[in-house]
Amino acid sequence: MCPVHEEDYNKEIEIEKSITQFIFPFSFKKERRKHLMERLKEEHYTHFSLKDQNLETQFYGPHHHVSHFDLDQYFLPYIEQILFPSAHESDGFHRFSKPLQCTGILETRNDPISFEILSIDIFICPYHIGMINIRVQQTKEKMVLTDTLDFMNHFRVLEPKLAEQKGSKVCVDDQVYEKVQELIFYHLCPFLVSFVDEREVEDAAYFGSLPYFVDERMYVIGYISVKDFESINDVHLYRVGNVNGYDERGRIHVAATNPSYIEKINKKQVYDRWAPHTYYVTSDHVFCCLTHEKDDQEEVLASGMLGQHYYNLLLHFYYKVVLLKLSYEHSLLRFQKDEDEIEGLISSISVFSAKYLFSEISSRTEGQEFAEKFKEVFHIDSIYMEVKETLLSLYQNQEKLIDKRHNYLLFIMTIYTVISGIYGMNLVIDDWKGSIHWHRMLHYSFFEYISLLIAISGIFIGLGMGIAAVIKLLTRWMKGNQFM
């Protein structure tokens, strides 16, 4: 990276190829997880498996493939079990993919951009989180960087809110959609509507929105191949990180004018290990590769963005979503009443920390360095510290509730003990031996009535406590697979 100059702000670069992936997280109904998997099969989605090498070329367009061997070698064994589960019953990320090859046009205030939807991935993840990934390749001739960024900026918007976002249309297979969410739920995968969990969101910003993940824009993974004679400068990298396309007047949009600020942001967002030929940009909005490389090396880079780096990003993106989900569920607790919910949330946080959240995910240097970038961008460590503090708070509240319950139990036991002591530890009436003479109860004395009341209430309280304990054990057993 070089110092920013005045002429860099208006410099355009031509590109040869642009492949983008748009990730949309949603929550599905936990009781319908198996039905969702069955429905995906009915819709001709393929369950992804590393063992099936025929899948290496099915979902990435005619000129690209993803090596399953490279995927297998990239991640550590315990991460592989999460990302590539073999059986549907196993915990982990169950990926269902389908090639589509739908052609379309994105119409904005500027020139329309033609594209092809290569395929779609639907991930069924633990904690009832799902993720949709739409894999798109722009097919417009003579594209420049701003065209690609403008396409990313408009296509990722699910529900237009701002003035600059409105006015765009997506035309796919002779159907026109004013919102990308309509394209997803009306055209690409309408069957998902009945599985999306909307119970938590009363005033949803858009269909499928998560109450703890408020953003009407999808996350973008991009691969951009730049022509040989073009040079990549700091302004280009900054614009990629902020997905700056055209402004309202159709000019190059740069969201900053201070060169020092641009350089400072790029130091955080840009991974320049292979500069000046290849740069990776990671931000809150996008993870993108810009490269001059051609031929075999270009294929290696594209395969990495569609394979290893894609899964690396996806895992950390999932970390952020689940951590926010756990924090949100903590905010909804009523500590005086929701004892079972407190125990469930404690279990959720503990299982997630032990089973899914790992600091080391790859044995390769670039994999480790990308993981650190993703952690920094998604604020994984800071959110996790908040969740750990939440766990401590939950333990403290649980202890208070347990103490309170024990005090009530001790109070009841004390009453029965005192009364039994008054009766000399003998509450038995001769009429209760053998065949019970119920009519004689009409002639009981006051103290015999007390004895009868204590005996019957003690029996019912004992049975109630026993039944409640059994129900609680059964409930915990039935919730044993709630995180899958």
From TrEMBL:
Highest taxon in the source lineage: Bacteria
Name the record gives this protein: Uncharacterized protein
Organism annotation: Priestia koreensis
